[in-house]
Amino acid sequence: MDALEPIERTLEAAIADAGPDCPGRLAAALRYAVFPGGARLRPKLCMSVAWACGAEDPALVAAAGSAIELLHCASLAHDDLPCFDDADTRRGKPSLHRAFGEPLAVLAGDALIVMAFDVLANGARECPQRLAPLARIVSRASGAAGGIAAGQAWECEAEIDLSRYHRAKTGALFSAATMAGAAAAGLDHEPWRRVGELIGEAYQVADDIRDAFGDADALGKPVGRDAALARPSACLEFGLQGAIARLNGLVAEACASIPPCPRGAELAGLIRQEARRFLPEDIARLAA
């Protein structure tokens, strides 16, 4: 899950491909939104599932993971806007709209979504028969039918089911990552949906905990936003200890849900290892 060089190369090529036809400030905003990256959890997960499934086309795997990461970067650009979180910082630097203004933040987010599909199509040139399922996976993860657009829209509803909200807002791209990894390997991707949903929900629970108990400087983004914006939160619903117990339960269920594949046991170990990084040690000690 640490072999991210193919992802970084693919992302760099995608941003560079915007080329001279892209207005200068938009090109700069695109690069700012993507680099330097965060943990790249979603492409790491995509690549790990593809590896566990025995994928043989590294370019397609890198394209699938990079497409999902571009969608994630787009969602951060839009999520931080004043009409949503109104966040001043992201990944330890000014958020995109603070650095480039709201119009370019909106346009950059839109452009990154389109770029994701361009990267996917380019990476599938050697395996065109796998493009259709991958495009469907990525489009559903970003749209209104349970995708990240739906996740953001749930915050506009009067009543929200926490699990359903988490599955869309965060789980959609994690499930896309597991399904895309399997699809890139030429396998049936649907059995991998549940694994990604569970990992995504676990990560969102961890994010709720970090927002409630974390340090803004250490996390590189504002904290306390859930309470300030009256958003649903695992901490508000379960308390700190209950939220951590839920996180651990979701990770265990995700590992148990891995479909049969050549390296399933190794993948479960990687998932557990990565999940231990979801929470800073000082927060975990609060519940001990």
Radius of gyration: 18 Å
Molecular shape: globular
CATH superfamily label: Farnesyl Diphosphate Synthase
Mean pLDDT: 91
Give the structural class: mainly alpha
Sequence of secondary-structure elements: HHHHEEHHHHHHHHHHH
How many DSSP helices?
15
Termini separation comes to 28 Å
Weakly predicted, low-confidence segments: none
What does this structure look like?
The chain is an all-alpha fold and 288 residues long. The chain has one domain (5-286): Farnesyl Diphosphate Synthase, CATH 1.10.600. The chain contains 15 helices and two strands. Strand 1 (89-90) and strand 2 form a beta hairpin. Helix 10 (193-213) runs antiparallel to helix 13. It is globular and about 50 Å long.
Q: Secondary-structure blueprint of this entry?
A:
Elements: H1 5-16, H2 24-34, H3 41-52, H4 58-79, E1 89-90, E2 93-94, H5 96-100, H6 102-123, H7 131-142, H8 148-154, H9 162-184, H10 193-213, H11 216-219, H12 225-228, H13 234-256, H14 264-275, H15 281-286
Antiparallel strand pairs: 1-2
